Amino acid sequence: MCGIVGIVSSRDVVGVLVNGLKMLEYRGYDSAGIAAVNGGEILIERNIGKIANLEDLLAKHPISGNTGIAHTRWATHGVPSVNNAHPHTDQSSVVCLVHNGIIENYQVLKDKLIAEGIAFQSETDTEVISQLIGFYLKNGTGFEEAVRQACCDLEGSYALAVLSKNETGKIVAVRNQTPLCIGLGKDENFVASDITAFLEHTKEVIYLNDGEIAVVTRDDVKFRTVKDGNELDKQAVHISWDVEEAQKAGYPHYMLKEINQQPLILVDVLRGRFRVGEDELEMPDVEEFVTPDIDHINIVACGTSWHASLVGKFIIEAIARVHVSVDYASEFRYRSPMVDDNSITLAITQSGETADTLAAVRMVQDLGRKTMSICNVVGSSITRHCGLNLYTQAGPEISVASTKAFTSQLATIYLLAIKIGIMRGVLDDSLFQHYLRELRALPRKLTSVLENVEELKRWAKYFQKKQNFLFLGRGVNYPVALEGALKLKEISYIHAEGYPAGEMKHGPIALIDDEFPTVIVAPASATFDKVKANLEEILARDGDVLVITNQPDEFRRYTPFIFTIPEVDELFSPILTTAPLQLFAYYTALRRGCHIDQPRNLAKSVVVE
Ligand code: F6R
Predict the structure, then answer these.
(1) Angle, to 10 degrees, between the axis of helix 574-591 and the axis of helix 254-271?
(2) SS3 76
(3) Model confidence over 150-160: pLDDT tens digits?
């Protein structure tokens, strides 16, 4: 996600800020910017691309100052561009700020400010905050109070660092649902989204909680609540991590960090489409682009995104009652696919750069048919070719093996299916409320799955030396079996095959013996008894069986290897059944001493055919 660093010091802070941004590079970004206060003026430089581009700009237009803020932006509202890069100012250039997070009610606030005669310079949700603070300042409110009042108007998530040209030597920082911390240095203090940005200068840290403001000066930091401005007393903690440990938030690998980010990502995906406390699914972009007479969705994707697409077929057909076909993008582009008038081709892609998926999208575009994407990277090549892009809000995925992108893709597919179902009039209110309850319960249920790792560590210890694995699932959990097999082979180099359980008798059963274990994904479902019958067939051939289920008692007499997930409607189970398979692959690869974040022979983005 985006990164924030700010410093109030007695030395020139520009070089320190640029170094701080470099420490945040691992988070991924598409533009960077910096602001320093000097002689009662705010000096700003911003550029797209890497921090090196910002440094080139600073070499040509040097700026300096003792107080400054800087930012790396990962686009969410508005493409990566100089205008959209942070810092953003108010109309009179009195205040300037950097922001991480998403302002849900930005359009309402923007409309109000435009009505007051304020002209916006960017497409971002962030600029609403700087303009709002400027608006309160103009009405005679003081700097800190103007920030506080503006925050009271905001809905959504935000970490902010704000400068004022009228109060040099001060940064006002605010946190709501997006991390922000204060570093206490010698003759200087820091603000950052992540301690790595200042770890080389200080290890004394105060973490802000949601709804707290910090007023940071060179020698002092004062804390207040956003709601009523009451003073707070907060204690510093000493951090013993080095920079690399801190970038992984203490996790030994990015993959494990990303697996554990999934519950929060689910919250973010839902938050982006439901206003706080309301049950209305806000997808005006979908309403505009997808007409209710749509009769076919062709999904094209590769790898893990293809598995998400297969799950998507079950979800969309069940909820929206639209026919869905799913193709490997690499196959689709080389046949003569039927792309009808009333169809939409949906590209599902984490990176937005996968060569085959891009080629498939271009092909449909050339046929003059509609294309849309579910993508994690704003402004990526595929999104530039699609008529509609639904962004997955997962933040940069650094581990080569995809985990959190898959979960965010599924969450987005649920929302899309529900919206199309409503538009087509096939979803009554009680079903809508049921789907909403299932969706809203997923972050909590996923958290409980991720807390239960000991059983998966035991599986990894017991089975680490095996050379082959079979993964079985049925219905919406058949693609989950494919994904479990892919994760295991990618990072542990164990041969693994995924199959729909009903297909086992048609061939794969020949492989089963006491050296060939099978993972069965079997939550309660319409085909539950049939999957149990598969299990008996495997046991009869001396195969070990590992089960992911929410019906553990049904399996206790067959196997000691049972991972229990919470109760869930079968249609919403894949997010909960996939997470243990991600962790099983992770702990198996760990035991086998594999290079988890960068497995051999694999690249994060496959931009060539
Ligand atoms: C597997 C993995 C790959 C990608 C595939 C598509 O862990 O990461 O299989 O899913 O290369 O990439 P995107 O989604 O970027 O199009």
Answers:
(1) 170
(2) coil
(3) 999 999 889 99
The Cβ of residue 123 has, within 10 Å, a number of other Cβ atoms equal to 14
Lowest mean pLDDT among 90-99, 243-252, 309-318, 459-468: 243-252
Which residue, 348, 327, 341, is CA-closest to 294? Answer: 341
Q: Is the pLDDT of residue 110 over 80?
A: yes
Quick check: CB of 355 below 6 Å from ligand 1? no
Which residue intervals of 248-302 are DSSP H helices? Answer: 254-271, 284-289
Tell which atom from ligand 1 comes closest to the C-alpha of 606: 11
Does residue 210 sit in helix, strand or coil?
coil
Sheet holding 323-328, edge to edge: 323-328, 296-301, 343-349, 370-375, 388-391
* pLDDT score, position 556: 96
For residues 315 and 416, give the distance between their C-alpha atoms in angstroms, rounded to a whole number: 10
Which 8-state DSSP code applies to residue 2?
-
User: How far is Cα 111 from Cα 107, in angstroms, rounded to an integer?
Assistant: 6
3-state secondary structure of 251: coil
Question: Candidates 306, 606, 608, 609: which one to mutate for ligand 1, based on the most atoms within 8 Å of Cβ?
Answer: 606
84 secondary structure, DSSP code: T
How far is the C-alpha of 178 from the C-alpha of 1, rounded, in Å? 10
pLDDT in tens, 40-78: 999 999 999 999 999 999 999 999 999 999 999 988 888
Contact status, residue 519 vs residue 456, Cβ threshold 8 Å? no
Phi-psi region of 252 (alpha: psi -120 to 50; beta: other; left: phi over 0): alpha
The ligand 1 atom at the shortest distance from the C-alpha of residue 604 is: 8
Residue 51 Cα, ligand 1 centroid: separation in angstroms? 26
User: What separation in Å is there between the alpha carbon of 588 and the centre of ligand 1?
Assistant: 21
* Closest residue to atom 11 of ligand 1, CA basis: 303
- pTM assigned to the model: 0.85
Instruction: Please determine, for residue 276, whether its predicted confidence score (pLDDT) is greater than 70.
Output: no
Q: What structural domains and CATH numbers belong to the chain?
A: 3-245 (3.60.20.10), 249-447 (3.40.50.10490), 454-591 (3.40.50.10490)
Q: How far is the CA of 528 from the centre of ligand 1 (A)?
A: 30
- Whether 402 lines ligand 1, by a CB cut-off of 6 Å, is yes
pLDDT higher for 609 or 313?
Answer: 313
Tell me the residue type at 126.
T
Quote the DSSP letter at residue 238: E
Q: Measured between alpha carbons, how far is 155 from 274 in angstroms, rounded to an integer?
A: 11
The CA 348 to ligand 1 mean position distance, Å, reads: 10
375 catalytically annotated: no
Which pLDDT band holds residue 177 (cuts at 50, 70, 90)? Answer: confident
Best of 402, 582, 601, 608 to mutate for ligand 1, by most ligand atoms within 8 A of CB? 402
What is the full DSSP assignment across 373-409? Answer: EEESSTT-HHHHH-SEEEE-------SSS-SHHHHHH
- Rounded to a whole number of angstroms, the CA Rg of the chain reads 26
Between residues 509 and 377, the one the model is more confident about: 509
